[in-house]
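Example record used in the benchmark description.
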Amino acid sequence: MTLPSNLDMDVLRSFVLGVQLNSFAKAAQRVGRSQSAVSLQMRKLEQQANCEVFRKNGRGLLLTDVGETLFHYAQRILELNDEAVSAVDRSDMSGRIAIGMPPDFAETWLPGVLGRFARIHPNVLVEARVDKNATLLEDLAAGQIDLVLFWGDTQADPSLPGRSLAEFPIVWVGPEDYEPDDSAPLPLVMMGAPCMFRTAGITSLDTAGMRWRLAFSSTSLSGLWAAVTAGLGVTIRTPEGIPSNLRIIRDSRLPDLGRTRLRLHTTSHPSPPVQRFISILDEHMSLNFQTANLLPRLVAVG
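Model output (structure tokens):
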């Protein structure tokens, strides 16, 4: 009986990093190889998998359907490999990391990232802080937290490393039985100011010349959802994490809200635990929220 081929773990890691970072040049830097060496790895991957993983798209590469399938398996293989190594490695990293984030991430996406991180690095204590962008960025600049996730294009201290993780549409959200009342101001359910979503909504309504009133204000996302469920008004968020009893309002009378970015900033010299958390976060975003960008997996060659 012919045994199946074994996929090279180093090749898989370069492959996954290249797709996650949208650049094999960046992946080469992360794995400590030249770009030409990583290109050779990708050819080796296609030989080992006996399939066409990429197809050319201008100056970049697109994953084929089979390549997309292989990418998801590669992520799972690397995850199991990392967990196995951590389980038997007595020199595993330890310490503490403090992370600041918006309520959307804390209440919907954080458990998946934390669960994966905790399984691989059980000796690292993770402290999560949920607050507004301005407060979190101030705490980051003061060195009180190690990493910040936030909505929008607000810039932290330019000396601090940062980048965009994903881009999401901003949408109107209301109860299942929502019906607009053109004779009355639009009732809004919002987080307290300052809030990027609040600003986006009010600015769009004012620009469109639409009347509105603040019907409910909350400091928590759960309070926001409860008020909308109760019929107090409509709110504004991204499509991710909307409760099943609420819906995106697609009403041409409401102004378009555009899009927003989920950004990440760290301290100048992030510790190994922070770097590892970011790596797992990248994997989680790539696996679960690729559709948020509404784009195919285009990987830059350079």
